[in-house]
UniProtKB/TrEMBL annotation:
Homodimer. It comes from Actinocrispum wychmicini. This is Phosphate-specific transport system accessory protein PhoU. Belongs to the PhoU family. It is found in: Cytoplasm.
């Protein structure tokens, strides 16, 4: 009976790892659509978001069932609680990638970003995808070193987000208020995506150590 119980715990973690990959793929494809004004790719990201939503519902149902039937304690209890928080974060990450894609669709056939900003957002997209992949590794291994790497990458993403506003407020900005608003909102999507990914890595480490580390400043 306990073997079945631990199989269910392992299966729950596997579902979360799959959701991490779905979120990473969604942000990768949404960023590619943003860079190239690819409506087909944007529509695919929007349509596929329902897969992440369904996966969250399944993870939460599995977690509640384990709580109700198995009464887990100690590390197992931390794992189940972590799974519920992680599933919520991963759904939000999917929604953020969807928002990037929806912006591409809304502005099509016009490019959302001026050429001068595209390298910055390509970099932000790359970091965001790496952070989602780090979250998956943290879920599998619960290695504190993964959290340290994620915190460092998230710091880079936050710096890119904060420094964007200096560009948008510069007096020679020549692309209009609409482009500035789009850039600011998209930058926040990437920044929030990264925050959710780091939160997952932090909670995964908590499962192993029993200590919740403080967020990096």
């Amino acid at each position: 009976m306990r073997d079945i119980y631990h199989d269910r715990l392992d299966h729950l973690v596997d579902r979360l790892v799959t959701m991490c990959q779905l979120a990473a793929d969604a942000m990768r494809d949404a960023t590619a659509a943003l860079m190239t004004c690819d409506l087909t790719a944007a529509e695919r990201v929007i349509a596929d978001d329902r897969v992440v939503d369904m996966a969250r519902s399944t993870c939460e149902s599995d977690a509640h069932l384990l709580l109700a039937l198995q009464a887990p304690v100690a590390g197992d209890l931390r794992l189940v609680i972590m799974a519920m928080h992680a599933a919520d974060s991963l759904e939000r990450m999917g929604d953020l990638a969807e928002h990037v894609a929806e912006t591409v669709r809304r502005r099509y056939p016009r490019q959302v970003l001026p050429a001068t900003l595209r390298p910055r957002f390509a970099a932000m997209g790359g970091i965001a995808v790496t952070l989602a992949e780090n979250a998956a590794t943290a879920l599998r291994t619960r290695d504190p070193a993964i959290l340290a790497a994620a915190d460092e990458a998230d710091g880079e993403l936050n710096d890119l987000h904060r420094s964007l506003f200096a560009i948008l407020e510069y007096q020679d900005w020549a692309y209009g208020a609409g482009a500035a608003v789009d850039a600011a909102q998209l930058s926040q999507c990437y920044e929030r995506f990264g925050d959710h990914a780091v939160s997952i890595a932090r909670r995964a480490t908590f499962v192993a150590t029993g200590t919740m580390t403080r967020e990096a400043s």
